[in-house]
Amino acid sequence: MSAAAVAVDCPEQGYRQAVRDWIAGNFPRTWMPDRADYAAPVFAEQIAWERSLYEAGFAGFTWPRDYGGQGQTLVEQLVANEELGRVGLPDSLNGIGKDMIGPVILAVGTEAQKVRYLRNILTMRDIWCQGFSESEAGSDLAAVRTRATESGEGWIITGSKIWTSFAQHADLCLVLARTGDPALRHASLSMFIVPMDAPGITVRQIDQINGRANFCEVVFDDVRVDTDAVLGGVNQGWAGAGRVLEVERAINRMYRASLFENELRHLVAACRSDPRLSVLLDEPAYLDRLGACYSDIEVLRRLVRRTVLSLTRGGAINGEGSIIKLHWSEAHQRIAVLAREMLAQASRPLSTVTKRAIERFDELYLRSRAETIQAGASAVQLGIIAQRILKLPKT
Fold it and tell me: Where is the Acyl-CoA dehydrogenase/oxidase C-terminal domain (predicted)?
């Protein structure tokens, strides 16, 4: 077995222990979502936390040092993510910039764009959002209607985007827009780097069913950008967009398996603390479902590790990302459904432990409803798997 395979299957314990030690000394205990005294970080605390992650070497793992990266490998990134997920880290405010847009800039950006944007992503000076989805396009990204028209020394962008995460905080947006004949579909799309303070941009937060408002509608009303705002070439946006989605589906948030395991441990601990719920842990039907959830988590962990190993050997993500995305999104919904069903039977009045668990899993249940839609709906993933992996004929 190669050294890379050993590193992925049995990560070097010295590095893993160093990550654990750093987390133990720096991650606020009240941010741990399985604690009864949990308190979510506020915006300024989140910014400071993500900056400290970078300063400790836990962001930009594989990015070149010339652009602020760590010059490491995906193996270190995987190990650190697994350890961060184990304690239930909060969602990144700049995960889109660090996990998706940064890699695309590295792959297709100009040297000037790499110098201008990459380091600022890691240091949290620039927060990014992603302007891809549109209400009229559904799951067909090639049908976007937002248009960019050449004008003098730049472009004018007109249209709107929906479900744009953290747009209310973002400094920059990666916008997919039509720059040619709509009949050409994929071949007439371009990506633009757009400052969110440009005249003509309106951001409207969307109230979500889970009580949050992290999704936004973003309207572009004759927004002007310079020629150097194009990322990856005019009418070359589909290839870049594909890179973004491949990363989003496969290896961004490598901590998911560890985070899901944190959630399942929380559920079991809450049940053990309650006399009525503890009985459920001896019922075969619930034991079977808990076991199935643990199996789901282990499958996800191994899918991600296999993809990391392939990439370290020079492979590509391709359709593998759709398998991972389909699995984690549907597995997470199964965990949420099971948790709500079990916790609904808690003793009354609720203890502080079970009350916190119910709060966490109620929010998770509502949020997980969208997870089989975001980054490409399950039906889309099944189509990609059928065509690119199984090579099934179209009917």
Answer: 235-390
Stretch (H or E) spanning 299: helix 284-312
261 counts as catalytic: no
What is the reported pLDDT for 7? 41
DSSP 34: T
Residue 310: the pLDDT is: 86
For residues 300 and 331, is the Cβ–Cβ distance under 8 A?
Answer: yes
Which tokens go with 395? 């009917």
Which helix (H) or strand (E) segment holds residue 172: the answer is strand 172-178
Q: Which stretches of the chain score pLDDT less than 50?
A: 1-11
Structural fold of domain 128-235:
Butyryl-CoA Dehydrogenase, subunit A; domain 2 (2.40.110)
User: What residues does CATH 1.10.540.10 cover in the chain?
Assistant: 3-90
* Model confidence pLDDT, tens digit, residues 230-247: 999 999 998 877 776 666
Residues of the chain with CATH 1.20.140.10: 255-389
Q: Are 35 and 356 in contact (CB under 8 A)?
A: yes
* Per-residue H/E/C for 35-82: CCCCCCCCHHHHHHHHHHHHHCCCCCCCCCHHHCCCCCCHHHHHHHHH
